[in-house]
Design brief:
Helices cover 25% and strands 25% of the residues. The protein has an eight-stranded parallel β-sheet with strand order 1-2-5-6-7-8-9-10. A six-stranded antiparallel β-sheet has the order 13-15-16-21-18-19. Strands 14-17-20 form a three-stranded antiparallel β-sheet, with no helix packed on it. It folds into two domains: 8-338, Glycosidases (TIM Barrel, Alpha-Beta Barrel); 350-447, Golgi alpha-mannosidase II (Immunoglobulin-like). It is globular, with a radius of gyration of 22 Å. With 448 residues, the protein is an alpha/beta fold.
Length: 448
């Protein structure tokens, strides 16, 4: 039985106003990883950011050349990426009141006039949280937010471009969703997920349990939408990561890559419309801020939100080795592999795997008339011998396999950031026997 429809828009990353996106190699790196979707201008700064002046309330740093037109010209146009924008709900251009819908509408009109690459516009970042700047009379308040969207942001942004999609932020588990989803107007909802609290990172949890915790949260978002009478509303996961602040050793390790790959599988199974990992470039950290405990696996003395190298050791990573700008770090190798599976027009499948399936997780989708299966071995030290079954098929005219595993990652101990290994197995009789190496993500493509 076919599952949820698959979209390539789950292969996405955030970009940011504080990083020089004009550097040569950024677009090529995004394309190597298979990235299709971008989000801008980035995180909590979105509720301080004023696009026309490329400035922040409070005088925070923005890269002078990283304004919206430059972002389109330097990155989006060359790569033909789809873009989601977060408009400023928290502050108006004078920085003395809440966000101005007219400013957001003008941004929509500008984007339409400059190529119409922006498909999704979300009102505010995590405006339900006390950490988010909000100069409305009642801050971080669901009723205030819902009314501002329904009477200001939504109608004015739609007037600027009737075809644009306008979204609201959701936060399952409290009262925010019940009020916002009942009172606001919206075309989609945006949800964010981080698996761990900084300083409490665990490789075992991240590799073996975190992706399933994320799947449970998607179920909660869907339940909130159903309760509001809007069960078919598309879900956009605007931010994804392993830890919500002070990223450390895990962020450049195979462990985050295994988590990211499983998250992509859960996004596909849930029929999520769009997703963007936090963050593509910008944000390197070292042991002065992040968790570099010896209990966490990895070789690096740097970490950070970024999943492509910023051109280390730039960005305050003292003592980090030089890693060329745009180098795919382990998490982006998971995206690169999954980009061969997440294709528009395909559907998720329920794979059947037998044998030594302890520590094995599997996802699958139709693939150009055939089948693509993603197999994870979540055991750090032992290989797993499994058998892959494809319903109604006893033969494949061609089988290929691409693998990123602990052994490939371990080359980074010598500052070698190797790509996944690929192999063609030719024609094969099914069911297909496979050996999955320790801590590995494997994409098996079967042509009928």
């Amino acid at each position: 039985m076919l599952g949820a429809p698959v979209t390539n828009q789950i292969i996405g990353v955030n970009m940011a106003y504080w990083f020089d996106q004009s550097k040569t190699g950024i677009t090529a790196a995004l394309q190597t990883a298979g990235i299709k979707a971008l989000r801008w201008p980035g995180g909590s700064g979105s509720d301080l950011y004023h696009w026309a002046t490329n400035s922040l309330c409070g005088g925070g740093y923005t890269f002078p050349a990283a304004n919206f037109p430059s972002f389109l010209a330097d990155v989006v146009d060359p790569g033909n990426f789809d873009v989601a924008v977060t408009v400023d709900y928290g502050t108006n251009p004078a920085c003395d009141a809440g966000g101005d819908p007219a400013e957001a509408a003008a941004w929509v009109a500008n984007a339409l006039a400059n190529g119409n690459h922006v498909s999704h516009w979300t009102v505010g970042n995590e405006v339900f949280g006390s950490w988010e700047t909000d100069l409305h009379p009642i801050k971080n308040d669901p009723t205030t937010y819902a009314n501002a969207v329904a009477t200001g942001f939504y109608p004015q942004m739609k007037a600027a471009n009737p075809n644009t999609q306008v979204g609201v932020v959701v936060n399952p588990g409290g009262t925010w969703d019940s009020i916002v989803l009942a009172q606001a107007k919206y075309d989609f909802v945006e949800y964010h997920f981080y698996a761990q609290t900084p300083g409490q990172e665990s490789d075992t949890y991240l590799v073996s349990q975190a992706a399933q915790a994320f799947a449970s949260q998607l179920v909660a978002v869907k339940a909130d939408l159903a309760s509001a009478g809007h069960p078919d509303t598309p879900i956009y996961v605007g931010e994804l990561g392993s830890v919500y602040s002070n990223p450390g050793k895990q962020s450049s390790s195979i462990t985050q890559a295994l988590y990211a790959g499983q998250v992509l599988g859960e996004l596909m199974n849930a029929g999520v419309a769009r997703a963007t990992w936090w963050i593509g470039f910008g944000g390197c950290s070292d042991a002065s801020s992040g968790n570099f405990s010896s209990s966490l696996y990895g070789w690096q003395n740097f970490g950070g939100y970024m999943v492509f190298s910023d051109g280390l050791p730039e960005g305050g990573c003292g003592g980090a080795p030089t890693v060329p700008l745009g180098t795919l770090l382990p998490t982006m190798r998971a995206f690169e592999l999954f980009s061969a599976v997440a294709h528009n027009g395909e559907h998720a499948l329920s794979p059947t795997v037998t044998g030594d399936t302890s520590d094995v997780r599997a996802y699958a989708a139709t693939n150009s008339g055939g089948t693509a299966v993603v197999l994870f071995n979540l055991n750090q030290t032992s290989s797993k011998t499994v058998t892959l079954h494809v319903t109604g098929q006893d033969h494949a005219s061609a089988v290929s396999i691409a693998t990123y595993d602990k052994g490939i990652y371990d080359q980074s101990q010598n500052n070698v950031w190797a790509a996944p290994a690929t192999a063609s197995l030719g024609a094969q009789t099914l069911p297909l026997g496979l050996t999955l190496t320790p801590w590995s993500m494997n994409v098996v493509t079967l042509t009928p």
